[in-house]
Amino acid sequence: MKIPILYGPRDLRIEEQPLDTDHLEPDELWIETEITAFKIGTDRGNYEGAEQVPGAPDYPRWVGDSNLGVVRGIGQGVTRFQVGDRVVTRQAHQSEYITRESASIVKVPEGAHPEDAVFAHLYALSALCYHKAHFVPGENVAVVGLGVLGLGAVALGPLFGARVVGIGNSPVRLEMNERMGAHAGFLYDDPDLEAKLDDFTGGAGIDLVILTANPWPAYRTSVEIVRPDGRVSIVSLMGRGEPSLDFNPLAMEWFYAKGISLIAVSGPPADLYPNTRQPSLEENRFSAERTCAHVLSLMAEGRLEPKRLITHRFHYSEMVQAYEMAYHREKNMLGVVFNWKD
Ligand SMILES: NC(=O)c1ccc[n+]([C@@H]2O[C@H](COP(=O)([O-])OP(=O)(O)OC[C@H]3O[C@@H](n4cnc5c(N)ncnc54)[C@H](OP(=O)(O)O)[C@@H]3O)[C@@H](O)[C@H]2O)c1
């Protein structure tokens, strides 16, 4: 099988590694990859040698975790999947692999286009930005940072009942923000941002900010624009690969005086009404897999289309090119997919 391995900063090599698909264990699946998607934010950091994410492997390491493929073989004990099923997993970029049924595998429903479905786990993370903050339909939501996760949050907002405004750092991204269905879009350094948001919310203010950008100026914008007692849902890895902080992030004027909540988007949301009577369903109602299945159902209904944002389609052998473009922070580069068919 073929797999790209990152040996160090800007040293990505596509390798051939053996894979024994003839001796599957009872709970194993053999999956052949069709396409993978590029998680730009995190993978650019790994590629440029930024601070390691806790729990992530050191070099040499695999890259990527948005993989769409077809089940080619199953062990005797596998019950949830069949040969021929199309599935999305959080496995790395690679041509084929073996995984256990207990891993994060979600079946792609009929009607969901592969170039939408391959982004399902990333959009599930965008959805988690709402769930973790216990979003309420009708709330005003500002998304600060319009990359893959930010534009995923923009696209999901109206489907969840939010009024959404995108806050970006370039006109190209504001155009994509509009294409994904935002109600409004502004630049983060717009001198009239406060007045424009006041007008956008009819004076009610921004109830929830979803922060997806690592640089500290984006954090500052977020705590400045959220209304008193509002929430800032932070999915970004603050400061990773960025210039260091030059202000107090918990300054009294923002934190104490406004009484805001800062929420880390990692791990499942608190389940307000957990199912305590059916042990088999005790899993969190909005686990990553259940949220991924919901996102896929919206794609199958044609209401959620990440493929609208695909700017580059590469053959996997051209992967280094894509990582170099991310390294140079190409603004026109957003949705990127890799084709694994030789
Ligand atoms: N919590 C988790 O479990 C989890 C999982 C996956 C990813 N992440 C993190 O989530 C973040 C978002 O991922 P992504 O793939 O969407 O990343 P991304 O493509 O880097 O998106 C962030 C966007 O925000 C822009 N930006 C930078 N400063 C800004 C500012 N002051 N105001 C407005 N926009 C600004 C960036 O522009 P530039 O390119 O010019 O900087 C970029 O376009 C990354 O930090 C990633 O590591 C977290």
Structure report:
It is a single chain. By secondary structure, this protein is of the alpha/beta class. It has two domains: 2-119 and 292-339, Medium-chain alcohol dehydrogenases, catalytic domain (Quinone Oxidoreductase, Chain A, domain 1, Alpha-Beta Complex); 134-264, Rossmann fold. The chain has nine helices and 16 strands. The chain has helices at residues 40-48, 114-117, 120-131, 148-160, 171-179, 193-200, 216-225, 288-300, 319-327; strands at residues 2-8, 11-16, 28-37, 61-62, 67-74, 86-89, 96-100, 105-107, 140-144, 163-168, 184-187, 206-211, 226-234, 261-264, 310-315, 335-339. The strands form three sheets. Strands 3, 5, 6, 7, 8, 15 and 16 form a seven-stranded mixed sheet that branches. A six-stranded parallel sheet has the order 11-10-9-12-13-14, with helices on both faces. NADP nicotinamide-adenine-dinucleotide phosphate (NAP) binds at residues 39-42, 45, 125, 144-150, 167-169, 173, 188, 212-215, 217-218, 221, 235-237, 265-266, 329.
